[in-house]
Amino acid sequence: MFQSRYDLVVAGGGVAGVAAALAGARRGLRTALVEKTVWFGGLATSGLIYIYLPLCDGNGTQVTFGISEEMLKRSLEYGPGEIPPGWRRERNAAEARRYRVIFSPASFVLSLDKMLEEAGVELWLDTVVTGATVEDGRLSAVSVANKSGCGELRAACFVDATGDADLAAFAGHGCIEAPNALANWTLEYREGAVGLAPNCSMAIVGCSTDPETVPPGISGRTVSEAVLAGRKRYRERLEREYVSGKFDRRSLFPLMLPAMAELRHTRCVTGEFTLEPGMEWTAFPDSVGLAADWRKPGFVWEIPYRTLLPKGLKGVLAAGRCSSSRGDAWEVTRVIPAAAMTGEAAGVAAALSVAAGITPDRLDCGVLSRELTQVCGFALHFGDLGLTGEGR
Hints:
Keywords: 4Fe-4S, Iron, Iron-sulfur, Metal-binding, Oxidoreductase. The protein is an alpha/beta fold. Helices cover 26% and strands 23% of the residues.
């Protein structure tokens, strides 16, 4: 049994967790980032979901800033990919013409490592969160396991960026669950392909299931079945290609399979407020940032701070796809740009709360808003960018 104490513990090393840890450490918090794999980036890297979706509204206006934009640019530091040069001039633009990039997952891992090292975050790789301790309604410690054995990490504040609201669930918090969908992305060699770079003969291919084929929520059985189902579908695809005679095992074969279950919706916290379908272009006084709908131009969302606060559980913030959303709203909050944005907001809120000696639910939203706008460079409200939602 070992024990360590921090100002901030972030569970989950996907883009939301990395952003939260960076935001906390850059403000002087002794910060630990706990990740169950040996790669940071989550679904973006281990899951081979290699498209950094748009930071703009599809009509030439950037809406998401801060670490989310920093990560987009750093994803190209050690590999190919280009930002569409004319994205500011586009109107009603398709996703591929917006402010987004396709990146190499392995290259992005290297950049995330570098960012975290530069910020002085204490990194716990190959470490699984196994439980949570709640004292007087406040999360006070998380249990972990790794090659050193079982231990406990205590902190003044926590961020749940596990993607599945694991901290909240272990703490006994009632979570929101939804019908799931399974994506399956694979890096493959395909003769004649143009993939991440010109003439590289590599491509990343993907397909999805009907959401009704995967049970709601998350469990050990769900993960096992999802991973095996995804690999089976890819195996069957290869067999069809071989039988057709178009390719054989020398001209078409996998180079890398996803190292984690690519489930899109599992569970998220039940927040002080839940973002619901139809709330695009809805203004919130406690907005912590703006997120564009990656599926269609002209739709922008304000994300309330209350969606990061698990109702009835103090001392913890949710970030990324753990934040409180349902249905169509969850489609917006679960992807890379919004996840990194809410991660940074959670990390900033944690730093301000720790400095004030309070839990995040007691933080003055005016103080948080000033930090996000004046220091992080966020736009928090539609009016900050002159957006009205008209003509979308």
